[in-house]
Batch of 2 targets.
Target 1
Amino acid sequence: ALEGDLALVECIEAPDSCRRSSECVTRAVWAEITSQFREILAGVRLADLVARHREVHGGGSDYSI
């Protein structure tokens, strides 16, 4: 939600952006990769990132990105 469109190539969200999208042999692969990418990100919560930060930095409270 914060990063905008997560499609890895433009034709996934906008097939009309490429005149070859209807015949492109790699478009289905990019669509599957994009789907898996979104699924992984959907499973990550802010609390998970905070926990990972604490594991790496020993519980410090530096939340800079």
Target 2
Amino acid sequence: MARKTIEIQLQDRDKTLDFIIKEMPATQLESWIIRAVLLIAGSGLTGVPGGADIQKAGAYLSEKGLGLLSSLDYEKAAPLLDELLACCHRKIDKHLELCTPQSIDGYVEDFTTLIKLRAEAIKLNLGFLAAEDGPLSAFRSMGVIPPQ
């Protein structure tokens, strides 16, 4: 089964850019979620769900998205932000170019374009965690994950 993808167009100052955003592989996404939750939990931010309820913590991360990551120490959050960017590919005709911190400045001029790309990558990768009937609901019904 192929990973999910979305295609978006973003206005970057005076030009329109096309992007394809691809879902992370399962093992990478699991690692990303665990690292993000641990970083957030260790940051001292209040109101962040923690403990064994990865569904609740992931849904919170999905809902708060970049706003939550932006409140963390940048040096610690940068690898997570770069991985979100690496889900994105610039589409030029039928050619796809991977978005990296090194390449993206060659065609993106407005920093808000980067924020929008990362936000879309979060929605694509973590949106399922917010769904009550999402893939973790079976574990909730077995008592492995506490009910919400």
